[in-house]
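lol forgot to send this yesterday, sorry. struct tokens for the thing we talked abt
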């Protein structure tokens, strides 16, 4: 049996391995689902006649990234038990965490402290924006909502992820919140179109989280992680996914009546067809096949990103 010191030695990775572990821990590709809605809000502000300040945009984007880093790193630390079990059940890259801790690339303590440091940096960004760059009195309100929801998504004692509301909070924090905050810090108010556009974006990111919970279902049940899927059950969860998919398409087309251009329709038509197809496949139980489920998880992310990009193209 290896001693603790021997185990630590075997966990040391070469520089390239440590860099790859940090990349996986931080889930860099998944930052796009937070950054793109923020860019959407900024484009809407520009289209509404606001003068876009690059310094405000750059600093605010840094704040968004800090909140996401805190959320992802905290999740890796507090979910490491169920992620370890999931890793022995499946190899779905969209579920079960990054496995950076389980594979000894990053220590749990480092993930915990980087989560805390990131949230402090996010708070500092909010203070600079509101008092230094004069982005308005609601700046810290928007920031505080994102910080509380992000930091305590996995962090105890709140740990929203196991209270059955975590998925809804993700839909809000990656839908309405970044679009509204980005618009507000540039224009000083919240445009009515923000509410329309946030519904399809929020519903599709909600679906990303919900579908990613299917591969982790056995591990989450075993460890008592009572997220929405565990509470609802897999059959009802499939129905919720399909319903959210259809509603997202309906609300996208309804939002066009609010004055959004139709330039992005050439892309969104394909996104809508993909979304409906995924809903049908999940309702038919095709997601029970692990290989198909992995593809569906990736395609659901594509639906979310494609929805946001379609709005951006329509506004440009």
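and heres what i got for the seq, position by position
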């Amino acid at each position: 049996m290896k001693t603790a010191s021997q185990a630590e030695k075997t966990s040391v990775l070469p520089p390239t391995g440590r860099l790859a572990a940090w990349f996986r821990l931080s889930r860099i590709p998944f930052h796009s689902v937070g950054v793109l809605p923020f860019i959407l809000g900024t484009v809407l502000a520009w289209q509404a006649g606001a003068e876009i300040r690059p310094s405000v945009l750059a600093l605010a984007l840094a704040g968004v990234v800090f909140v996401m880093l805190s959320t992802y790193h905290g999740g890796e630390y507090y979910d490491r038990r169920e992620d370890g079990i999931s890793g022995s059940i499946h190899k779905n890259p969209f579920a079960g965490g990054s496995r950076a801790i389980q594979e000894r690339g990053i220590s749990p303590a480092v993930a915990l402290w980087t989560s805390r440091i990131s949230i402090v940096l996010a708070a500092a960004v909010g203070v600079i924006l509101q008092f230094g760059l004069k982005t308005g009195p609601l700046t810290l309100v928007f920031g505080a909502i994102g910080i509380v929801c992000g930091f305590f998504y996995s962090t105890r004692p709140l740990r929203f992820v196991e209270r059955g509301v975590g998925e809804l909070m993700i839909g809000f924090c990656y839908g309405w919140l970044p679009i509204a905050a980005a618009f507000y810090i540039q224009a000083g108010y919240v445009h009515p179109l923000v509410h329309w556009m946030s519904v399809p974006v929020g519903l599709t990111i909600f679906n990303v989280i919900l579908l990613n919970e299917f591969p982790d279902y056995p591990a989450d049940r075993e460890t008592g992680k009572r997220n929405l899927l565990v509470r609802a059950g897999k059959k009802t969860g499939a129905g919720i996914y399909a319903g959210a998919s259809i509603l997202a398409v309906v609300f996208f087309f309804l939002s066009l009546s609010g004055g959004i251009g139709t330039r992005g329709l050439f892309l969104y038509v394909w996104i809508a067809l993909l979304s409906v197809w995924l809903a049908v496949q999940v309702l038919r139980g095709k997601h029970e096949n692990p290989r198909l489920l992995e593809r569906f998880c990736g395609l659901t992310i594509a639906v979310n990103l494609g929805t946001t990009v379609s709005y951006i193209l329509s506004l440009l």
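Residues 16 and 222 are 35 Å apart (CA to CA). anyway ping me if u want another try
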